Amino acid sequence: MTTAFRRPSDRRVSPIFLGIVAVMAVSGWAVWTDFAEQTGFAVFLFVTAAWIVSLCLHEYAHARTALHSGDISIGAKGYLTLNPLKYTHALLSIVLPVLFVIMGGIGLPGGAVFIERGRISGRWKHSLISAAGPLTNVLFAIVCTAPFWLGALDGVPMTFRLALAFLALLQVTAAILNSLPVPGLDGYGVIEPWLSYKVRRQVEPFAPFGLIAVFGLLWVPEINGFFFDGVDALLRGLGVSEVETYCGLDTYRFWQEWFGDQDPGCALIR
User: Fold this and answer.
1) What is the CB-side half-sphere exposure of residue 114 using CA atoms within 13 A?
2) How confident is the model at residue 188, as a pLDDT?
3) Known catalytic membership, residue 59
4) Closest residue by Cα to residue 226 from 163, 190, 162, 176
5) How far apart are CA 67 and CA 64, in angstroms?
6) Per the database entry, which stretches of residues form a coiled coil (predicted)?
7) Looking at the chain, which terminus has fewer C-beta neighbours within 10 angstroms, N or C?
8) The predicted structure's pLDDT at residue 1
9) Which of 129, 7, 110, 12 is nearest to 56 (CA)?
């Protein structure tokens, strides 16, 4: 019988994560109180920090579920500290997802945790580990949209409302895209344990290119339009209008004001 030795540092919340949470809290307060001279920059900091926090929680959910499913190596890898730098390569895990947000307002998954699947028995456990990440995005989206579908927006400053709407858009797109049954994404991880060994071996070489393929398809106007029509319909059902998400993105891109590219209609709303 063996016992895993767990160091306290394996589960201690990373100062880096706490720093990001602090940036989110301070910038959110600046947006709410209109304290910041450059409100757009405060929105940028708030949404970006909140998005990184959600990325960390997404990967933490995978790791925590794997730990309880039998992979006791998770702690030693630093996945339980919520340190974004522990989730694979910093460029792929943090920088690229943030760039996707800036370029297209799309919440694409970025990080990953390496799970020793051989330590875990049972197909349901493997599926649940993969599903834990997107479910975290769903929960985050529910929290962001709660003031809208609960009708609790009285007293909420318009700029903060727009920031929440845009953040909700990111969480919904991340949840949907990451749930696609595409190799390399969590949606495929959910169904993979139920596929035959032969099919898994045939699909395995395509896993590194799944995310790239999805991103490439979203540049096709017809597919992009169909996808965002569905996202907008879902958000409308949660009480968030297209105007709010669009103006949230417009506010987030504060640098457009320098070039006179911000929508004057959104300026009137704010």
Assistant:
1) 7
2) 94
3) yes
4) 176
5) 5
6) none
7) N
8) 39
9) 110
Please compute Rg for the chain using Cα positions.
Answer: 20
pLDDT category, 70, cuts 50, 70, 90?
A: very high
Among candidate residues 59, 192, 204, 244, the one labeled active-site is 59
Report DSSP letters for the chain, one per residue: -------GGGTSPPHHHHHHHHHHHHHHHHHHHT--SSHHHHHHHHHHHHHHHHHHHHHHHHHHHHHHHT-TTTGGGTGGGT-GGGSS-HIIIIIHHHHHHHHH------------GGG---HHHHHHHHHHHHHHHHHHHHHHHHHHHTT--TT--HHHHHHHHHHHHHHHHHHHHHTS--TTSHHHHHHGGGS-HHHHHHHGGGGGGHHHHHHHHTTSHHHHHHHHHHHHHHHHHTT--HHHHHHHHHHH-GGGGGGT-S-HHHHHH-
For residue range 98-116, list pLDDT tens digits in order: 777 777 677 776 667 888 9
Buried b (16+ CB within 10 A) or exposed e, 162-178: bbbbbbbbbbbbbbbbb
- CA separation for the pair 18, 53 (Å, rounded): 9
